[in-house]
Amino acid sequence: MGSNDLADANECGIGVREILSGDGTVRRRLMVHCDPRSEAVYVSNCAACERCIGFRPPGHGQSGTVLCRRFEGEPTPPVDAGMQAPVRAVMERNIVCVRPDVRVETIAALLLEWGADGVPVVDEEGHPIGMISWTDLLRERLDGTSAPSGPGEAGGADLPSGAPTHATAGDVMTPLVFSVVESTELSRAAALMSAEGFEQLPVVMGDGSVGGLLSTRDVARWVGSSERSGK
Fold first, then answer.
1. 46/7 Cα distance (integer angstroms)
2. Alpha-carbon separation of residue 210 from 46, 47, 50, 57 (angstroms)
3. For the whole model, what pTM was predicted?
4. Alpha-carbon span 52 to 12, nearest angstrom
């Protein structure tokens, strides 16, 4: 890899998708946004691409990057701003998903560990079939046990105390009706979330599997950043 190659390279950040099953096994896939295709692809496909120069190993707090060659005369992708930005500019790429057989106690611990508001529930192929949020977990616990000691703070407190439950993700999830693709305009995704009362929205790849997650936090953070940069 020469210095000229590096000068002409795009650095594409790698995202990580983990799928947790009820037996504790984890399936891990690496994904990256491909500008020529305008969609996410699996990193395993990059090595066979004529544009691929190489890979940078993960750094502190990062998952690594794919170095992708720009052809002569090819314009640099524009920088998107504001609510006209595509979802891919805002969404979280490092995500965890669960299979329907994962126990709710495991999901609660997972949300605490990741600092997340919810997780997608997926089928064997990683296609989204539902979402589980703190609200879903609290509802299951309140419906199935004695009165809790307190409702807990949204987005991060322990579940109310009560008898152990054997409920799984499939029992308590909100069945998925909507998802978006990476190229969806942020304003449209935000309008969908507002109209349907969603806190999180799965972002799917070309094969229909989950490649990212958009939350109301992501949208608020992006809007705040855009307003500050516009001053």
1. 19
2. 19, 22, 26, 24
3. 0.79
4. 11
Is the distance from CB of 142 to CB of 160 less than 8 angstroms?
A: yes
40 lies in the same domain as 110 = no
* Rounded alpha-carbon distances, angstroms, from residue 116 to 109, 145, 154: 10, 24, 11
> Rounded to an integer, what distance in angstroms lies between the CA atom of residue 163 and that of residue 161?
7
Residues 103 and 170 in one domain: yes
If pLDDT is split at 50, 70 and 90, which confidence band does 21 have? Answer: very high
Residue 223's pLDDT band, with cuts at 50, 70 and 90, is confident
What range defines the domain where residue 22 resides? 3-80
Residue 170 sits in a domain of what CATH number?
3.10.580.10
Alpha-carbon gap, residue 8 to 162, rounded angstroms? 59
Token reading at 159: 């579940």
Backbone angles phi, psi at 64, to 5 degrees: 95, 170
3-state secondary structure of 12: strand
**Does residue 8 sit in the same domain as residue 96?**
no
Q: Which of 80, 111, 130 is the last residue of a domain?
A: 80
Sign of CA dihedral 180, 182, 185, 190: positive
- Domain count of the chain? 2
**What's the DSSP call for residue 168?**
B
Among 28, 50, 80, the domain boundary falls at: 80
Confidence of residue 155 (pLDDT cuts 50, 70, 90): very low
Mean pLDDT, the chain, as a whole number?
Answer: 81
Give me the torsion for CA of 19, 156, 132, 214, rounded to 10°.
-70
CB-CB neighbours of 185 under 10 Å: 15
